[in-house]
Design brief:
DUF1198, 79% helix, DUF1198 domain-containing protein, mainly alpha, 146 residues
């Protein structure tokens, strides 16, 4: 009898967890499928955003609107290239992720502003991000600049 009660509690917790995290998983999966990456890359980004910003990020892309998901892809790009690892190899890898997803690899000021908003808790310097954006666009997207 005790085993049945324990099993019922476990089922209630598992079902509750799945229901409570449905939006997060849906948003994470849609963005990961667009970029053709593992969801863990997005999970790590969400953890560093902070609770409030990550909730807003998830809310913005959980509706499944293509434009919002595309904007979110650039946030993932900025996170992994500017915040985590700005090496040329890593930037090339993530640029190729954008290209594979049929997204323009150019970073715009709108992408930078969104990143500053979502990563507000990390105290990113806007000037440094602008320099990174300019340097990235000049170095990796020379064809577009002509």
């Amino acid at each position: 009898m005790i085993w049945i009660m324990i099993a019922a509690l476990v089922v209630v917790f598992v079902v509750g967890y799945w229901i409570m995290t449905a939006d997060t998983r849906k948003a994470n999966d849609s963005l990961a499928s667009l970029l053709k990456i593992k969801p863990v890359y997005i999970d790590s980004m969400l953890l560093e955003m902070g609770k409030r910003q990550s909730a807003m990020f998830i809310r913005s892309i959980s509706g499944g609107y293509a434009e919002e998901i595309r904007k979110a892809a650039y946030i993932v790009f900025i996170y992994h290239t500017f915040i985590k690892d700005a090496s040329d190899e890593n930037i090339t890898h993530w640029r190729n992720v954008l290209v594979r997803a049929h997204l323009d690899p150019m970073l715009t000021s709108e992408h930078a502003e969104l990143a500053l908003f979502y990563f507000a808790e990390l105290d990113i310097e806007p000037f440094e991000l602008a320099q990174f954006r300019r340097s990235y666009n000049e170095t990796f997207n020379q064809i577009h600049l002509v």
